[in-house]
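Example record for the data management plan.
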Amino acid sequence: MDVKAALDRVRAALPAGEERPGQVAMAEAVARAITTGRHLVVQAGTGTGKSVGYLVPAILSGRRVVVATATKALQDQLAAKDLPFLARHLGVPFDFAVVKGRSNYLCRQRADEVTGGGDQLTLDDDADVGPLGRDVLRLVEWGRTTETGDRSDLDFEPRPRAWAAVSVSATECPGAAKCPSGETCFAEAARQRAEAADVVVVNTHLYGAHLASGGHVLPEHDVVVFDEAHALEDVAADSLGLELGAGRVRAVARSARGLVASDDAGAVDDLESAAVRLEEAGAPWRDRRVPPDLGTELGAAVELTAQRLQRVTSAVRSGDGDSARKARALQAADHLAGDLQLAASVPDGYVAWVEGRTGGAVLRMVPIDVGGLLASRLWSEVTAVLTSATVPPLLAARVGIERERCDELDVGSPFPHADHAVLYCAAHLPDPRSPGYADAMHAEMEALVKAAGGRTLALFTSWRAMQAAVEVLRPRLPWTVLAQGDLPKPALVEAFASDERSCLFATMGYWQGIDVPGPSLSLVTIDRVPFPRPDEPLVQARRERAGPGAFRLVDLPRAATLLAQGAGRLVRSATDRGVVAVLDPRLATAGYRWDLVRALPPMRRTRHRAEVEAFLAEALAT
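Corresponding structural encoding:
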């Protein structure tokens, strides 16, 4: 069966299946890429059906394919909707599996230890365990009946500490062979299913961990598809770097306590003291770049922690503690020792900084340019398809793909943006960096939201700006104003979609992955062009490496991509109509404005609010 015939067969199974030329072009290009071994970068706008566009040729190829997504929402869509649908209607048998990081699965061994190794403890046995304890016991009970052990299958949201009590990270798990519960391990079962599957769905962070491990996390595969590929560069940097904080040191100390002889208890105390010193030494560098030698205090704290960790590790090895707990403690200690060694100085080509709040701050160290690392570890090993609704300029070069080995394609979007959407720039507003901007922007937002009758997704570039807008506009608007943080993200989006006249105010996590078709979302407002902060350490280092052209090579592509992602929340179906309002006059006046506009869907453009109000009135009347 050729690709076109397969797509026709799949489309015939849809209630209102209509041919999408962009999807056909994409699928045929993916098929050619897999056959020839040439990498493919394809921009597929909203409505293309890009998931089916790459899944159908991948399945038909008979090769093992890994699909890596940047968001959990897309991962769940592939696993719960797209792949089951193709399994029923494609006419070609195939198996698929989902693999997540170990910390997403309940650990049977930890759950067994929580209950003292037996089945005597149930939710009714101890009414005084408190909310945390009840969560833990509920998780243990769930672990006895669940088939997957996957946290996403829970019907309640446990406290983070409760989930931590019954799960392990990759740095703690000693592996199935060294674990008493290894034969019934949920994480191992997921990996075994992946070994037998034709299509394996993961998130991009896990794929990065696979690369960082030398290829030992995922099964061997011939093809990798990076969906939401606009995030690949930053996710790869995260995955190929390290995070080191006092919390990890304390966790190792806690796991060691009780496993060492009484004569060695002081070594554990000393390690906990080193964690305090590490935290104190990192505090002056919070949100700042760390020098290559880490500075006197932070460098000394890292060295001291490494020395004291070595003493604790030796004490655990010679102790007589429980074998499973001992294996986990040693695994975590060995990983920590490796990261402490790497963190002793910042290698060439890396940037380090401290981020996070007091008590949870971590030293982060990541590669400035991931292209070379990906070129040596990935592009020569598999055929890759990189796809997104918005592909950043020069993406292939930025991630290390040679131009001679790569094809690029833009299949557009089937949705009628030019007729159904208006791009409005409030050119009369003050510069966002001026003192009077906030008040003027709030007044503009109020007028726009009232013109839309609610039905607004208001996107902000900072938490502070969002909170200020909520405080000002909530009392002024007659409709429900939902704000990020009011509810968990899925529940918040559902509340917004189900109440047609509500508004949702949110920050960066909502600029992508939000799909609310229909009149519930008729207006998207964006407070300012989303340029990265001048002091953001990784971006700062990339600017320095880029030299005089840094703004156009680093800042502008990043802002254009994110702006397009935010604007892409508006038109989610062929019948959607509405307005994207950018409340930043630079979109209309700056010399770089066309770089931003060209990245957006081809909407009608205006600087006049009266045109916007008339368009919304007409759109909402139809």
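Summary line stored alongside the record: Residues 528 and 584 are 5 Å apart (CA to CA).
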